[in-house]
TrEMBL record:
Residues 217-357 form the Nudix hydrolase domain. Belongs to the Nudix hydrolase family. NudF subfamily. The keyword Lyase does not apply. It comes from the Bacteria. Its cofactor is Mg(2+). It catalyses: ADP-D-ribose + H2O = D-ribose 5-phosphate + AMP + 2 H(+). Its EC number is 3.6.1.13. This is ADP-ribose pyrophosphatase. CDD domains: GGCT_like (cd06661), NUDIX_ADPRase (cd24155). Keywords: Hydrolase, Magnesium, Metal-binding. Acts on ADP-mannose and ADP-glucose as well as ADP-ribose. Prevents glycogen biosynthesis. The reaction catalyzed by this enzyme is a limiting step of the gluconeogenic process.
């Protein structure tokens, strides 16, 4: 049966990625459902169709989808709680057509403003298409509800790739000088592990022999070290880290700057400010960029955007924070500059981003204090 679509799948690149049909655009015809409207779901970025007096819900009919394409589309939509049900629309000749459409269970969602399709495509069309490519790649090993639970992490990874693509690079060797022979994804979850057999261009111009490499595919992060130039104080946070635990560290709680992943559609600076509030209840007035750098590009895709954040750190500003929904239990500590500098020089800090931010602050502290 033909399919009526009215929401994000109207973005043809996304429809192609989800359906797996590169020719799907050749089988699209206009249609509408009078007495209905399409509105954004409250608290979400996708729309729903709903009854509306004097409304007209416009969309398209996708004709001639095969079983494989419908199975893929069903999988994608079920991840977000939508099922395909029969629906009646009017085609371009105002003839009634019985089709199917993806609808949520009754009363699951509430509506916000009318859906701005063009605005959504401009803001999120490319990112959602990139995310859908990963989402559909796990169809054979992850149930739709599980994929839906992992979708925000998939979108965050896609946003990191999108951010990387905007980097103009430094010239010389580039992506065209890497030949991927085989790619696999042995683990997919909050993080992914991807394994590649590849060859790369050597500095003498030849191609290397094939090599096998595995990489942790993470998300770009914003890192913030709060500094009060008036009181000459620094804030660090402390929390349990499973990486230190698995290494066998007798104390897997580490002192760190504030840090968190950059959400899709969020700028690194905004993420830094948000994380300061979530983790430590700190409001940042000014940000000073330290660096945007890879912590370990031989093993992870993560890029760290590191900042010094000017903040008010009075007595009592330290405490506990973090998001309960993310099982965060974070304790903040206020250190005088003398205490922080002594620990920095004595090598007592065990986290590289804290060392980078601390050393930058040591070089620029006098300037920040003079302008406070």
């Amino acid at each position: 049966m033909d399919l009526f679509i009215f929401g994000t799948l109207l973005h043809v690149p996304l429809l192609e990625a989800v359906s797996g049909d590169a020719d799907v655009s050749k089988r699209l015809v206009w249609a509408a459902r009078p007495g209905y409207s399409v509105s954004r779901v409250s608290g979400q970025v996708f729309p729903m169709i709903h009854p509306a007096t004097n409304g007209v819900a416009e969309g398209i009919i996708v004709q001639g989808l095969d079983d494989t394409a419908l199975e893929r589309l069903d999988y994608y939509e079920k991840a977000f709680g939508h099922d395909r049900v029969e629906f009646v629309v009017l085609d371009a000749y105002e003839q009634s057509r019985t089709v199917t459409a993806y609808l949520p269970e009754p009363d699951r969602w509430s509506t916000a403003e009318l859906w701005d399709r063009d605005g959504w495509i401009a803001r999120a069309g490319e990112l959602t298409t990139m995310t859908a490519i990963e989402a559909m790649s796990v169809m054979d090993r992850m149930a739709a509800p599980e994929m839906g639970a992992q979708y925000p992490a998939m979108m965050a990874r896609a946003a990191s790739r999108q951010r990387a693509a905007k980097d103009t690079g430094t010239g010389g060797l580039g992506r065209a000088d890497v030949h991927v022979l085989h790619a696999s994804k042995p683990y997919a979850g909050f993080f992914n592990v991807e394994e590649l057999d590849l060859s790369f261009r050597r500095f003498d111009g030849s191609m290397s022999d094939p090599v096998n490499r595995a990489v942790l595919v993470g998300v770009d992060c914003a890192i913030l070290l709060p500094y009060d130039p008036v009181r000459d104080r620094v804030m660090v946070v402390e929390q349990f880290r499973p990486g230190a635990y698995l290494r066998g560290d007798p104390n897997p709680w580490t002192l760190e700057p504030i840090a968190g992943r950059i959400d899709p559609g969020e700028e690194p600076e905004d993420a830094a400010r948000r994380e300061a509030h979530e983790e430590a209840g700190v409001t940042v007035t000014d940000l000073h960029c330290v660096s945007a750098a890879y912590p370990s590009p031989g093993s992870t895709t993560e890029l760290f955007y590191t900042y010094i954040g000017i903040a008010d750190l009075p007595d009592g500003a330290n405490g506990t924070g973090g998001l309960v929904a993310e099982a965060e239990d974070i304790r903040s500590h206020i250190m005088t500059w003398a205490e922080f500098d002594a620990a920095l020089n004595a090598g007592k800090f065990r986290l590289m981003p804290l060392l980078v931010a601390g050393l930058w602050l040591a070089r620029n502290r006098d300037r920040l204090r003079a302008s406070a």
